[in-house]
Design brief:
Length: 392
């Protein structure tokens, strides 16, 4: 089975200019997200967005778990409801796998298109605690093997996936063709990464879990481009929020070539062009959203207003301590307090009072530290995020 073309092409057999221009705009606006913020603040946003990414990627599969419930699971506070508990475990597994992907991208000679990498994602995800329930495939006697290529032919809607005996060679071909994209400009690398998402889903390498695995692989491909800012936005949120359009566009790109004016590959070039255009739109929407809400001046104002609202009893939670707004403002500007004595000076309070405020904010997940004498950094919990990043 042939899955060419692998990238969008125009009549001149080059990537269409409008897609190149949109990809360049996306890269520039993504890079701009990092400006004006300390790295510690950006890392706090990235950390929370892993939870958001997990929520949306699982929601696409109709198995979303609210960020607040994911946070509870992180503290080993699991639901008594068996289904909710299972979904909490799934979310934790997804977050840990995303961290694994981020680490693998940093390794020498990394390629997001290698079969080894794609199988590692699937293996890591489905080998986590609580994932055994997902290994049982309806209609099959044997369980799915984490990281193992499928052992049965499958149909996915109207799409007939490649036969089992063809799959290893097709995965090798996928790696061989797409690794060319790692050598070009960042614009070209981005186009290759977005196009590869459909082709990997099309190959359907595993008995189950192809959607989650392919989106995590796409995270790896986007990180591998070296485009600054990815992680401060994530494409899974855009795909999930576009509703059925994501699945419709995947199915659309499955289309066979429609005549002599639709490229020279086995699959439709026009349909792949449409798919990459859709992916660029989703990605740009996410960058535009974060651009709007990451502006330092307005971000500081929302933090201050949030503290004020808690102290006025407007939320269903205990008021935050007096002077919390000052601490948030300084952390947004500086990124961290290297010495805890800084807190006394900034808040204008005694050491004892500063210690009490710090202890409460640590306990309530508004700040974080690696140890009793380590620096203090901002932490964005789900309740805070709902206010400072509306409709995130």
């Amino acid at each position: 089975m042939d899955f060419t073309p692998i990238i969008p092409l125009g009549s001149n057999k080059k990537i269409p200019q409008d897609l190149l221009e949109r990809a360049e705009k996306l890269i520039h606006s993504s890079v701009a997200l990092t400006g004006g913020h300390p790295i510690e603040t950006l890392n706090a946003v990235r950390e929370h967005l892993r939870t958001i990414n997990s929520y949306y990627s699982n929601k696409i599969e109709s198995e979303g778990t609210r960020p607040r419930d994911i946070e509870k699971a992180m503290k080993k506070d699991f639901s008594n409801d068996k289904k909710k508990r299972t979904l909490q475990m799934l979310s934790l597994a997804h977050i840990e796998t995303q961290k694994k992907v981020e680490n693998l991208v940093q390794t020498e000679k990394f390629s997001p298109y290698k079969t080894e990498f794609i199988c590692t994602i699937h293996n890591y995800l489905y080998s986590q605690d609580g994932m055994k329930v997902f290994l049982k495939i309806k209609g099959l006697e044997e369980n799915m093997i984490p990281g193992g290529l499928r052992t049965h032919d499958v149909d996915v809607g109207d799409h007939i996936a490649p036969k089992v005996e063809e799959l290893p060679s097709l995965m090798n071909k996928f790696e061989l063709l797409y690794r060319e994209g790692l050598l070009g400009s960042k614009v070209n690398q981005l186009i290759y990464a977005l196009a590869s998402h459909h082709r990997l889903v099309y190959l359907h390498p595993f008995l189950d879990g192809n959607g989650r695995t392919s989106r995590l692989a796409l995270d790896g491909a986007l990180l591998a481009t070296g485009i600054s800012g990815y992680g401060l936005w994530n494409i899974s949120r855009g795909l999930a929020r576009s509703g059925d359009e994501y699945k419709d566009m995947l199915a659309h790109a499955d289309m066979n070539r429609q005549g002599d004016y639709d490229g020279t590959g086995a699959l439709s070039t026009r349909a792949l062009n449409d798919f990459v255009s859709y992916m660029l739109t989703c990605a740009q929407d996410q960058v535009d959203y974060m651009t709007k809400y990451l502006k330092l001046s307005s971000l500081t104002q929302r933090f201050t207003k949030y503290v004020e609202l808690t102290q006025n009893g407007m939320f269903d939670l205990a008021p935050l301590p007096k002077n919390t707004d000052k601490m948030f403002k300084e952390l947004l500007l500086k990124g961290e307090f290297k010495k805890r004595t800084e807190i006394d000076e900034i808040l204008g309070v005694s050491r004892r009072t500063a210690t009490e405020i710090t202890k409460e904010l640590l306990h309530r997940d508004y700040i974080q530290s690696d140890g009793p004498k380590s620096s203090i950094r901002l932490k964005i919990n789900s309740h805070l995020a709902e206010y400072i990043f509306p409709e995130l």
